[in-house]
Amino acid sequence: MKIQLDQGRWNEAQCDALVIPLFEDDDYQGGIASDLDDRLEGLLSELRTTEEWKGKSGDITVIYRPRGMAARRLILVGAGKRAEFDLAAIRDLLMEAVHQVKGYDLKRVAFYRRSRVDAPLAAQAAVEGIILATYDGDDYKTESKSKNFVDEISFLTNEPVDREALLAALERGRILSEATNFARRLVNEPGNHINPPRLGEEARTAGERCGLDVEVLGEPEMEEEGMQALLAVARGSDEPARFIILKHWGEDREAPPLVLVGKGVTFDSGGLSLKPPESMEDMKVDKAGACAVLAAMQATAQLGVNRNVIGLIPAVENMVSGRAQRPGDIVRSLSGKTIEVLNTDAEGRLILADALHYAKRFNPCMIVDIATLTGACVVALGHHRAGVFANDDEAFQSLLQASERSGEKLWRLPLDKEYRKLLDSPIADIKNVGGRWGGAVTAAKFLEEFVDETPWCHIDMAGVDSFPEKSIMKGATGFGVRTMDELASGR
Question: Which pLDDT belongs to residue 3?
């Protein structure tokens, strides 16, 4: 895909679709809104008197063969109030605009910048929105498969800019959005196509593609390590577990790394604590954290981040069989701590427990884990923010700043010591569930047991792994990829 900067006039841009944002509070007595209205012979003014166009966020109007313009289509995108127009708005509006005209053979798309948002950041967000919109998720359809592929993206501005910085931002946007789409594709893959061994193969392929060091441990190696909590979850499946290790090196290989850990349950039946059928239908997405880490590691390598970053993915299936772990079982984790398993559907924290303890051997400066961990987090925050828990304020602030740059929203939830009492077990060091109340918090408190004093953040992405039902976008979101890369870049 070709991505370029064009500092010519917007009306001269030769493209299949020219996207121009317009605000609710635009002044039609001057500026681009007035110029557009004149070229369109008063059509904008007429539209503003109807319910078809108010300039509100989400309003989209497509004009074919606009008079006095070189573009084949003009896409007017409502940007809401000017003061509220930020990076997330740019990204989301471009996604909506391109999605609106998918299937119309858009080879060249141009976006005209008209905001006070920093030009390189705006360029990155625009490219991300366009490329994210090109992913369909219909790989298994035999008919009516979309053939819309954008070959060229132009970022238009008539203001003086740092050309080198802006081109770098455009390339960064391409790498991050393509990595996000890679994660989306993997998450959308059904359980009969992506299982733990296949996920390991995807990791090896990604490593070869972008220069990551990749190691994949099988069950004998995990047994030798002592990862009994992870292996206990895997016992019910005929598909063997994998433990995937990805490494990216900066200039100083001795520097403490950032370690990213992703939950990789390629399908979750709930085990013997069986989920009801309607709750099981989408459980291919229980690997969303793992896919986000894999894609983030790919982008980290492609961006050439000058920092040591390590990705860890515990990959299992949680299934039902005569070998499956039972409610009431006690397993010994890699850390040596014993766990009373009261609910086999709380399996993600078991595999993460071993992965988090394993992460400490790298003497990391910070650990971030990401997982579709609890329904309780969805109840608390819905489908617009992921919950985040942290044992270190500085670590949380760095993650929050990364999320603000990425547009992936987080909300901090508590880790008060009182919640730990809910995990007390009379016969083991800890139990894997803490009861009905505060389920997202007790799950995080469980994970905290295995990081000790290492600065750590836990992202519960259960509510944001997939687009909401009424969204124009469908399937997996790829949440977390861009945030983890922004964190690794340390910008």
Answer: 87
CA dist 80 and 32 (Å) reads: 16
Active site amino acids: 275, 349
Amino acid identity of residue 422, one-letter, is L
Tell me the C-alpha distance between 458 and 473, whole Å: 26
Short-list 134, 104, 75, 57, CA closest to 473: 134
* Distance between CA atoms of residues 4 and 1, nearest Å: 10
Q: CB–CB of 271/346 below 8 Å?
A: no
The CA–CA distances, whole Å, from 69 to 13, 18, 44 equal 8, 10, 15
State whether the Cα torsion 29-32-38-41 is positive or negative.
negative
Let me know: does 258 contact 366? Beta carbons within 8 Å. Answer: yes
Report the alpha-carbon distance of residue 128 to residue 404 in Å, rounded.
15
Question: What does DSSP assign to residue 477?
Answer: -
For residue 432, which of 449, 415, 416 has the smallest C-alpha distance? 449
Angle among Cα 10, 14, 18 to the nearest 5 degrees reads: 55
- Which residues face 331 on adjacent strands? 339
The tens digit of pLDDT for each residue in 68-124 reads: 899 999 999 888 898 888 888 889 888 888 887 777 778 899 999 877 778 899 899
H or E element, residue 243? strand 242-248
Thinking of the domain 189-489, which architecture would CATH place it in? 3-Layer(aba) Sandwich (3.40)
Domain boundary assignment for the chain: 2-161, 189-489
Look at residue 274 in the predicted model and tell me its pLDDT: 97
State the pTM of this model.
Answer: 0.94
Among 97-111, 260-274, 279-293, 466-480, the range scoring the smallest mean pLDDT is 97-111
Q: What angle do CA 174, 178, 182 make, to 5 degrees?
A: 170
- Tokens read off for 17: 């679709």
Any residues with CB less than 8 A from the CB of 297 and at least 6 apart, and which? 206, 212, 246, 248, 260, 309, 311
* CB-CB contact of 296 with 488 (8 Å): yes
* Residue matched to tokens 């030769």: 14
For 2-161, the fitting CATH number among 3.30.70.330, 3.20.20.140, 3.40.220.10, 3.40.190.10 is 3.40.220.10
pLDDT in tens, 18-52: 999 999 888 777 788 888 989 888 888 888 888 77
